[in-house]
Amino acid sequence: PTDTEIDWKAYMEEVEGFANGTLDYTQLKGDTGPLVYPAGFVYIFLGLYYATGRGTDVRLAQYLFAGLYLLNLLLVFRIYCRTNKVPPYVFFFMCCASYRIHSIFVLRLFNDPVAMAILFLAINLFLEERWSWGCLLFSLAVSVKMNILLFAPGLLFLLLQRFGLLGCIPKLCICALLQVILGLPFLLVNPVGYLTRSFDLGRQFQFKWTVNWRFLPEEVFQNRAFHAALLLAHLAGLGLFALHRWHRSCALRLGSCCGITPPASRVCPLNASAQIVFILFSSNFLGVCCSRSLHYQFYVWYFHTLPYLLWCTPTAKLAHMPKVLLLGVIELCWNTYPSTVCSSLSLHICHGLVLLQLWYGTAPPPAPHTPPPSRRPAPISKKAQ
């Protein structure tokens, strides 16, 4: 069988058990192993199961995913148009220059693109100030695949800034309630089995599929201490960005809402829409950089956010070419199969360069220096005398 048939067949086998009445999540499995995605995945792919003749019409499924790809681009373009940060020519690379992304969407039919399309719809709702609907769609995206949780720290920060501690509780309840409703049929039968299978944060990844850690020995890659170090690095990065970059990016907007003009040293030149997108995209990117493993289909987790992360900071005209080159090297790393020591190291170097640009490119301008007032008394005019 082809790669497409392997992935698609496994998904269809996983949801076929549910179609036949199996509600014990531990009993839902396919050729590639047990079902490890939340309940939203089951419902969406169950619809595809019936739409494609119980999963037999793979060509129709590819047409449906091609439509999903176009919808995803439309949602991403709308976000970029609202922020007005990326030059138009960059959209060519987003549409036409990634063989890997086209493969993930239309050839391999993974669930990652489904989750990301719903996530981008949620971000569009956030930009329209429809926070309750946005949180509902965000939670739906999480129910398709857990990688969406990488955006959660940024979203929590935005909710706290926008609504305060008490005001954000209803929004968080929306997210939690949807998860309960979607998982209820499985929670009533085997709650422990559902939670441990669909939200397994400690799952081990196979070394042969890793894109980002190929340069490490396999025993280090599988070591729990290494995983703990990555988690600490992730939390530290989130804390630093929240205190020194996200907080400053919201200072101008919060000050204007309260009738207060923040000092110039605390203002980052980002408009309201750009603030939301910057915080969400950088939150996700920090998680990608610290991931225990990146598989080839995970490229879609952040591919459409890379142009924004590279161009959201002030750029001289001559500095555009290095950013395009950086996009090209990242694409080359993801298209190297199997991954090599060189490709995985290059990917980390590129990620590090993006992080450095985000950190220094969004730093607030220094406070203007004013000379201390002179202590000498002002001369008295003759008229005053």
UniProtKB/TrEMBL annotation:
Membrane topology of the entry: Multi-pass membrane protein
One GO CC term on file: endoplasmic reticulum membrane
Region named Disordered: 366-385
GO molecular function: dol-P-Man:Man(5)GlcNAc(2)-PP-Dol alpha-1,3-mannosyltransferase activity
Listed InterPro entries: Glycosyltransferase_ALG3
Localization in the cell: Endoplasmic reticulum membrane
A Pfam short name: ALG3
Recorded catalytic activity of this chain's protein: an alpha-D-Man-(1->2)-alpha-D-Man-(1->2)-alpha-D-Man-(1->3)-[alpha-D-Man-(1->6)]-beta-D-Man-(1->4)-beta-D-GlcNAc-(1->4)-alpha-D-GlcNAc-diphospho-di-trans,poly-cis-dolichol + a di-trans,poly-cis-dolichyl beta-D-mannosyl phosphate = an alpha-D-Man-(1->2)-alpha-D-Man-(1->2)-alpha-D-Man-(1->3)-[alpha-D-Man-(1->3)-alpha-D-Man-(1->6)]-beta-D-Man-(1->4)-beta-D-GlcNAc-(1->4)-alpha-D-GlcNAc-diphospho-di-trans,poly-cis-dolichol + a di-trans,poly-cis-dolichyl phosphate + H(+)
Statement: the UniProt record of this protein carries the keyword Transmembrane: yes
Entry keyword set: Endoplasmic reticulum, Glycosyltransferase, Membrane, Transferase, Transmembrane, Transmembrane helix
Transmembrane segments: 35-51, 63-80, 109-127, 133-160, 172-189, 225-243
Pathway linked to the protein: Protein modification; protein glycosylation
Enzyme class: transferase
Pro residues bias (residue ranges): 366-376
EC number(s) on file: 2.4.1.258
Function: Dol-P-Man:Man(5)GlcNAc(2)-PP-Dol alpha-1,3-mannosyltransferase that operates in the biosynthetic pathway of dolichol-linked oligosaccharides, the glycan precursors employed in protein asparagine (N)-glycosylation. The assembly of dolichol-linked oligosaccharides begins on the cytosolic side of the endoplasmic reticulum membrane and finishes in its lumen. The sequential addition of sugars to dolichol pyrophosphate produces dolichol-linked oligosaccharides containing fourteen sugars, including two GlcNAcs, nine mannoses and three glucoses.
Name of the protein this chain belongs to: Dol-P-Man:Man(5)GlcNAc(2)-PP-Dol alpha-1,3-mannosyltransferase
Organism: Nipponia nippon
